[in-house]
Amino acid sequence: MSVIFCDTDCELWYTTARELGIKVIPMPYTVDGVEKMYDLGENTDFKAFFRGMREGSAVMTSGLNPQTYTEIFEPYFKAGEDILYVAFSSKLSNTFKYHDIAIKELKEKYPNVKYRIFDTLNICMGAGLLVYLAAKFFNAHGGDVDATYDYLESIVQKVKVLFVVDDLKYLARGGRLSPAKARIGNVLQVKPVLYVNKEGEIDILTKQNGFKKAMSFVVSEFESKYKPVEGAPVVIVGADCDEYVEEIRRRILAVCPSADILVQPVGPVIGAHCGPGTYGVIFTAESR
Asked: For the domain 2-156, what is the CATH code?
């Protein structure tokens, strides 16, 4: 027997994870000192979360401790089930050092269990799309952990993420941009188009002057780089910005009418760093 895991930083929708039989690790976030665990949208009030951010709520994220990882994984080790964990980028959190502590101890305690973690080098639905494709493959191939891992290696660099933030102050709060640059950028209406690079880090692809130019750049990048992979939808995500999402959905369909488009919200863990008004497009390409 074997099982496949993901974490909620992959943002795969809860019904999809359930239908595919994926075990889910909830990741924490804190709003005004109250810790919550993201549930892939099952009971999440997205509008209230982003409204709170706009009104000044103190929002933070954190990792899990070794004990929590042990509590999550030990029942499967104890049952002798092989495990594949398809994780969000290790470059974007310190939580994996605590994960490694827990897994090292579990492997010593249960030496006959196979445990593999696949680093998607991605975040949000960039990781989620890889989890989705992995689970489909895993289920179709009898829960073969090694074959699924190899399949992921063949497609990991083919999932491209582009996103645009509406207000730079949230990147500044997270330490990804200086407060001074954020203020200047907001005044000048600079809209950086960000992406997740091959190393699994968030980087700036370009800076555009204003909302319209930024969206036009994203659509142009999609049109020139999109290369369908069987079973992979084009995903559009938005952080409480339905009008942005609808506009980019319409524009993507205009350049690629055959695109199978999936739309869903940005979750609170990711949203804590990018802020309300962020939108993104995740699609398969020749490379990132």
From this structure: 3.40.50.10170
